[in-house]
Amino acid sequence: MKIGNIDLGDRPVMLAPMEDVTDQSFRLICREQGADMVYTEFVSADALIRNIERSIQKMTIAPGERPAAIQIYGRDVDSMVEAARIAATAHPEIIDINWGCPVKKIAGKGSGAGMLRNIPLMLEITRAVVNAVDVPVTVKTRLGWDHDHKIIVELAEQLQDCGIAALTIHGRTRSQIYTGEADWTLIGEVKNNPRMKIPIIGNGDVTTPERLKECFDRYGVDGVMVGRASIGAPWIFKEMKQYLLTGSVPVISHSEKMSLIRRQIAESIDRIDEYRGILHIRRHLAATPLFKGIRNFRPMRIAMLRADTRAELEAILDKIENDILPNLETQLEEDNNNEKRID
């Protein structure tokens, strides 16, 4: 798959842009684990224009994470054009426009998925951004505003006519937020529309290597973007890429997974500070499947998520790694045998 002159190879798997998740450390780790391209946290056009430090920092791209995209969002032509030009100075491989974020504080103000209620303005902004920068411009959006307005098939053609280099579609409407199941049938319909010439990237509920392959095989998309399934589990890209190549999922040890979690903690603290760095990483600790299936883990989980110093958190992780994880496979095997006896 190529976006402009950027060749991402066959069946690329990408890390989706996620606020408070896809910081530089996480992007680097995901690239090392096999993600073919990564996206920054989404950046406010207004904040970029006002030179807000936090937003400027979001655009810092390390050599090891390229190819990388900077995603911007806003709600008027002039600010989005200026923001795109500012983003281009960070030399991303791609500038992505966020027409898909469903959260109220963004969509409710007309940005993100809120633009699905004002298609003429969406197209005007998209066309203006494409014309304003030399970097390939892509769009990420949803099926439509709600169940009665699933307009993506027609909208995809209109966005293509604006000059975008690729289109990512999340298989939900804005009104669904992240509830229900992602509908990939309309994503497939866009991809199979003979009038579409640009790459189509699918997104939504791709949580396993098997589901990833199914989406490629059944819907014919050019690429797949993985979001929430990667939180606390950056190794999912290694699993997915190897499964696509060989049909088998690699065995990644608990120790290797724990090392990646510990690295995220250390780099989050080093990037911000101890207290805020730990707060930032809690989302990954809460979501990670590494601790799934551990008996009587709730008190340890609570302690882990309440730890507010590096030393305290490291001590808890040491105990998990030394006393709990080595016995996890035996425990899961016993649980499976007990379930079979009950059946």
Instruction: Provide the CATH top-level class of the largest domain.
Output: Alpha Beta
**Radius of gyration using CA atoms only:** 21 Å
What is the CATH architecture descriptor of the largest domain?
Alpha-Beta Barrel
Q: Count the strands?
A: 11
Oligomeric nature of the chains? single chain
The amount of beta strand, in percent, is: 5-15%
The side-by-side strand order for the widest beta sheet comes to: 3-4-6-7-8-9-10-11
**Could you state the CATH homologous superfamily of the largest domain?**
Aldolase class I
Structural class: alpha/beta
Task: Indicate the topology.
Blueprint: E1 2-3, E2 6-7, E3 13-15, H1 24-32, E4 37-39, E5 43-44, H2 45-49, H3 53-58, E6 68-73, H4 77-88, E7 94-99, H5 104-107, H6 119-132, E8 137-142, H7 152-161, E9 166-170, H8 185-191, E10 200-203, H9 209-219, E11 223-226, H10 236-246, H11 254-271, H12 274-287, H13 298-306, H14 310-324, H15 328-342
Parallel strand pairs: 3-4, 3-11, 4-6, 5-6, 6-7, 7-8, 8-9, 9-10, 10-11
Antiparallel strand pairs: 1-2
